[in-house]
């Protein structure tokens, strides 16, 4: 999936909330982990946060939306912290517009609430600029209140990022059970099974395998195919026999 990640605020007139924790700072902390975690899972992530300072609110919001729309992302994730009045409100909520957005929002809320934040649930907010003007499915995450002490005490950047990623992908990238990243198995079809042509190639009768000579390297190579062969070489007065196969290669002598 191609995912836009937006770190809320942080330029000119577009400032985050200040409480026991600073919204802009915390968002950049957990947001960076959201990006690396999604990348670890193989997603393409585009950070749509403005790099330029001194923007007006409109320029700041417009930039995020334009970058995401130009990149034709599949999902837009805006990272924020909530704020109200000191020690009054608490918990997590995720804002959305579309039905598809609600599906993500519900899952992210569920994962965030497992960290101990009160689940305030998904909230439909059709007037939020970044939700309204992004072409992709979009969510805006308010994981907790930066002006509520009990919420701030529960904050852990890695756990928060893990919960958000799990809500989006179902994967536990920073969790207890490590993600097993499997190496792609080479497709047999990519192997070229043809016998090369050339004056230095001698075919065997029967159509399997061939001998290749490389005169300037002092090498004679007996091939089963292009990737499985025994190479004999005189090199600076020493001779080597190397054995190669599709799955291993070793020098014998
Ligand atoms: Zn915010």
What does this molecule look like?
The protein has 253 residues and is of the alpha/beta class. It has 6 helices and 12 strands. The protein has a 6-stranded mixed β-sheet with strand order 2-1-3-6-4-5. Strands 7-8-9-10-11-12 form a 6-stranded antiparallel β-sheet, with no helix packed on it. The radius of gyration is 28 Å and the shape is elongated. It starts with a strand and ends with a strand. The relative contact order is 0.14. Zinc ion binds at residues 8-9, 16, 23, 80.
State the strand order across the main sheet: 2-1-3-6-4-5
Largest sheet: 6 strands, mixed
Could you report the average pLDDT, rounded to the nearest whole number?
90
> What is the rounded Rg?
28 Å
- Look at the helices and sheets and give the structural class: alpha/beta
The CATH top-level class label of the largest domain = Alpha Beta
- Principal-axis shape equals elongated
The ligands bound in this entry are: zinc ion
N-to-C span: 49 Å
Q: What is the assigned CATH homologous superfamily of the largest domain? A: Zn-dependent exopeptidases
What's the total helix number? 6
Along the chain, the helix and strand elements come as EHEHEEHEHEHHEEEEEE
Number of strands: 12
Helical fraction equals: 25-40%
CATH architecture of the largest domain: 3-Layer(aba) Sandwich
Question: Unreliable runs, pLDDT <50, ≥5 residues?
Answer: none
* Whole-number tally of structural domains: 2
Query: How much strand content do the residues show?
Result: 15-25%
Tell me the CATH topology of the largest domain.
Aminopeptidase
